[in-house]
Write a structure and sequence with these properties.
The protein has 176 residues and is of the alpha+beta class. The protein has four helices and eight strands.
Length: 176
């Protein structure tokens, strides 16, 4: 077994019976999924430290055979308390690849969590860090420079007119 101590931002959680499956964007491992045993029990010490939007110091254990992690311990350092937190977590989850550490993205997300109010171009900044720079982009369907959306599912920029013509592009849509 391999034990890793890292800092991470909890992006999402899925709960079944008593266990939880967490998506965590870590500083050293990138995006990982980890299971926490009995995290839903009323006596669980982990539950509060693994809520979406929490920056936590996390201890993970990975079996040598297999690619899953088990969350052993967590201690919250900072919680995102912004009205845009769900949108930030969604975008960070969609724009990061599993197992690919990105120090620049991690630092920017940490900066957003520390901010008293969110900067106006935060979505464009996350897209730029992820490699989809909106500065020179145009609508992928018509070529218009007046795009207003980014589809994380289709990895393309869209303008209002093209979005109305193609309603199937609405899944994973981010308004810029």
């Amino acid at each position: 077994m391999i034990e890793v101590f890292t800092r991470g931002l909890v992006l999402d959680k899925e709960i079944d019976d008593k266990d939880g499956l967490f998506t965590i964007f870590t500083e050293t491992l990138g995006k990982v999924r980890g299971r926490a045993t009995s995290s839903r029990k009323i006596t669980s010490k982990l539950a509060a430290h693994l809520e979406p939007g929490c920056f936590s110091a996390i201890r993970l254990v990975q079996k040598t055979s297999g690619n899953g992690f088990r969350v052993i311990d967590a201690l919250i350092e900072k919680k995102m308390l912004l009205s845009e937190t769900p949108e930030i977590l969604f975008l960070a989850d969609k724009m990061t690849a599993p197992g690919q550490p990105d120090q620049r993205m991690f630092a920017y997300l940490k900066k957003l969590a520390a901010a008293g109010e969110i900067p106006s171009g935060w979505k464009r900044e996350i897209l730029t860090i992820a490699g989809f720079d909106p500065a020179g982009a145009s609508c992928d369907l018509c070529g218009s420079k007046n795009f207003a959306y980014f589809s994380s599912r289709d990895i393309m920029f869209l303008c209002e007119r093209c979005l109305k013509r193609n309603p199937d592009c609405r899944e994973g849509l981010i308004r810029l």
